[in-house]
Design a protein that fits this description.
Elements: E1 2-5, E2 8-11, E3 21-24, H1 27-30, H2 36-45, E4 51-62, E5 69-76, E6 81-82, E7 94-103, H3 109-122, H4 139-148, H5 151-154, H6 161-164, H7 183-189, E8 202-211, H8 214-219, E9 226-233, H9 236-252, E10 267-268, H10 272-306, E11 315-321, E12 323-330, E13 333-340, E14 343-344, H11 355-358, E15 363-366, E16 374-379, E17 388-389, H12 399-405, H13 411-417, E18 421-424, H14 427-432, H15 441-450, E19 454-467
Parallel strand pairs: 3-4, 18-19
Antiparallel strand pairs: 1-2, 2-3, 4-5, 5-13, 6-10, 7-9, 7-11, 8-9, 8-19, 12-13, 14-17, 15-16, 16-19
């Protein structure tokens, strides 16, 4: 691997690699342990049919299923392949950032605790958990919500039409077809809309700690000290089953043959299997947009009940997907861009962006660990990474190692000492998600800025956190 320019390192093409590898990093991040395995995955992805440009690793890269988490790969739409491993099990896992009108310091300790408790009770969290009293989604509901995306929830009173202009792709991926989704997937997702799930998913409330690019922050009406809400969740059991069903189908069709790793199993984009996966994946992506829309609705309800703030005053800034495959055009060429643990980062004047973001570029949301910080960035539209950026801090330690490190200790009290009030369904999840399990998010976003992918707009400090 050699330095291409500041923030970018190239892995030369060798053996059966069709393209070189590209690593976004700074020198500090390159010193991290356990890089070799995910970099080997970068080399393996570079061998997939139809890949163009580079097989790309973001600075938050770590090992994943097939593709590394933090991996980006673009395939020619006519001759390339589509891979579930390049999207992940949690299809359209993503983040949305909303802003409340008050300064965080204006909230009393009593109000903060009431807010946290209210949201914890109204937004289910934990493995497999959903809304127990919901009747469940009907086939008609699924037909509509997978076709309409987040608009489906908005039209049922869970949000505002203005929210849609503040979502990636306006909250809907075209090409969904519920007929490509199994009954089991629909059963698993039946009562999970408006729920967090487990693992690294969360609802977080905190304050805008520092403005790093005040002119952009001002255009987006982001103020220092302002109260923010960050929501991280995806397509829950619905998307997980779509991924598993597709993997089973692709392997059964023999698509795993002649690959360096069976987990990279893929189908030609134009094949029946490839088209069916995209239609099912788009369905799950639209489920996820609805999921985050409904979680935000519950948060707005909490602010109304506890603080007296009207729902429309809790303003959605942006919602981004970071586990997705999408068709995008670069230099007149239509590509299927896989982003697994990576965020789209369109720059100014991109035709898909709403008017507010035409001048600046789109917001890029990068959650860190729950004890340090998250970051708000603005996309630069860099074509070398297919307008992609990092998606989080990235794990530095496995879940098992993190659990062992916190065995016999009280992580909730520790977080309280750090100024973070934490509620979770499972103590196991808390131990897995402690701050020392993650890379330094400041280094990760600095590497993206150094490489010209995005610029830091604001640093966000968490104070109230709900985990699975």
């Amino acid at each position: 691997m050699y330095k291409l320019r500041e923030g970018l390192y190239e892995i030369p093409k060798e053996g059966e690699m069709r393209v070189p590898g590209l690593v976004v990093a700074n020198e500090e991040l390159l010193k991290m342990e356990d890089l070799e395995h995910p970099l080997e995955q970068v080399r393996n992805v570079a061998r997939l049919p139809g890949i163009v440009g580079y097989s790309i690793a973001m600075p938050d890269i770590h090992w994943g299923y097939g593709f590394p988490i933090g991996g980006v790969a673009a395939m020619d739409a006519e001759e390339g392949v589509i891979s579930p491993g390049g999207v992940g099990y949690d299809i359209n896992c993503g983040v949305r950032l909303a802003l409340a009108p008050m300064l965080y310091r204006e909230l009393s300790e009593e109000i903060k605790q009431k807010l946290l408790t209210y949201i914890f009770k109204s937004v289910p969290s934990g493995v497999g958990r959903g809304h127990k009293k919901q009747r469940g989604l009907s086939k008609r509901d699924y037909n509509e919500l997978t076709a309409e995306g987040a608009r489906w929830s908005v039209e049922r009173g869970m949000g505002f039409l203005s929210d849609l202009d503040h979502c990636e792709s306006h909250g809907v991926i075209e090409g969904a077809d519920i007929n490509c989704v199994s009954d089991l997937a629909m059963e698993r997702g039946g009562n999970q809309l408006g729920s967090i799930g487990s693992g690294n998913h969360f609802v977080e409330i905190g304050e805008v700690e520092t403005l790093l690019l005040p002119e952009v922050a001002s255009k987006w009406s982001v103020r220092q000290g302002q109260t923010y809400i960050l929501i991280h969740s995806g397509s829950r059991g619905f998307g997980h089953q779509v991924c598993q069903d597709t993997l089973n189908d692709f392997v059964g069709r023999g698509y795993a043959q002649n690959l360096p790793d069976r987990q990279l199993v893929c189908a030609p984009i134009r094949s029946e299997a490839g088209r069916n996966y995209f239609a099912a994946m788009a369905s799950a992506a639209n489920y996820a947009f609805n999921n985050r829309q409904q979680i935000l609705h519950e948060v707005r309800q909490a602010f109304t009940a506890v603080v007296g703030t009207a729902g429309e005053e809790i303003r959605l800034l942006y919602d981004v997907a970071h586990n997705i495959a999408k068709f995008e055009t670069y230099g007149g060429r239509r590509l299927c861009v896989h982003r697994k643990g990576a965020t789209r980062a369109f720059g100014p004047r991109h035709p898909e962006l709403a008017p507010l973001f035409q001048e600046t570029g789109q917001p890029v949301l990068v959650p860190g660990d729950m004890g340090t910080a998250s970051y708000l960035l603005v996309g630069q539209g860099n074509p070398i990474t297919w307008c992609s950026c990092c998606h989080g801090a990235g794990r530095a330690r496995s879940r098992i190692k993190s659990m062992n490190a916190w065995k016999g200790r009280d992580p909730v009290s520790y977080m309280a000492e750090q100024g973070v009030n934490l509620m979770a369904t499972s103590m196991k999840t808390i131990a897995e998600e402690m701050p020392d399990a993650y890379k330094d998010v400041a280094q990760v976003v600095a590497a993206c800025q150094l490489a010209g992918l995005a610029q830091m707009v604001a640093r966000l400090k968490p104070h109230l956190v709900i985990k699975g």
